[in-house]
């Protein structure tokens, strides 16, 4: 993983990526924009802004109504998970789901 990419990821974007992972770890699937807003307590505009920012970075892609990690996003999440979020059990649970391919990409 490029150190430049991790260094260029702002604290807010790291937080947004972590929120996606936390949702994934708790629900076993990726969030929609409204679900992420409700989950984080952010207003809808702020949640959408953060999701779009991660999409512009190439870390998320939209599939229907949900936002899914790209290969680049997964690599960044794993890098942050092994360093910055090493002790965060919820993030680690989400990364294990992703590692074993058990994260659902469909809405329930």
- Strand fraction equals 5-15%
Enumerate the spans where pLDDT stays under 50 for 5 or more consecutive residues: none
- Largest sheet properties: 2 strands, antiparallel
Query: Count of helical segments?
Result: 6
- Average predicted local confidence, pLDDT: 86
In spatial order, strands of the major sheet run 1-2
What does the oligomeric state look like here?
Answer: single chain
Radius of gyration: 13 Å
Anisotropy-based shape: globular
Overview of the molecule:
Helix 2 (11-27) crosses helix 6 and helix 5 (71-81) crosses helix 6. This protein has helices at residues 3-8, 11-27, 33-40, 44-56, 71-81, 89-99; strands spanning 60-63, 66-69. The protein has a two-stranded antiparallel ribbon with strand order 1-2. It is globular, with a radius of gyration of 13 Å. The longest helix has 17 residues, at 11-27. It is mainly α. The chain is 61% helix and 7% strand.
Question: Features of this protein?
Answer:
single chain, 61% helix, 108 residues, mainly alpha, 7% strand, globular
Write the layout of secondary structure elements.
Elements: H1 3-8, H2 11-27, H3 33-40, H4 44-56, E1 60-63, E2 66-69, H5 71-81, H6 89-99
Antiparallel strand pairs: 1-2
Helix pairs in contact: 2-4, 2-6, 3-4, 5-6
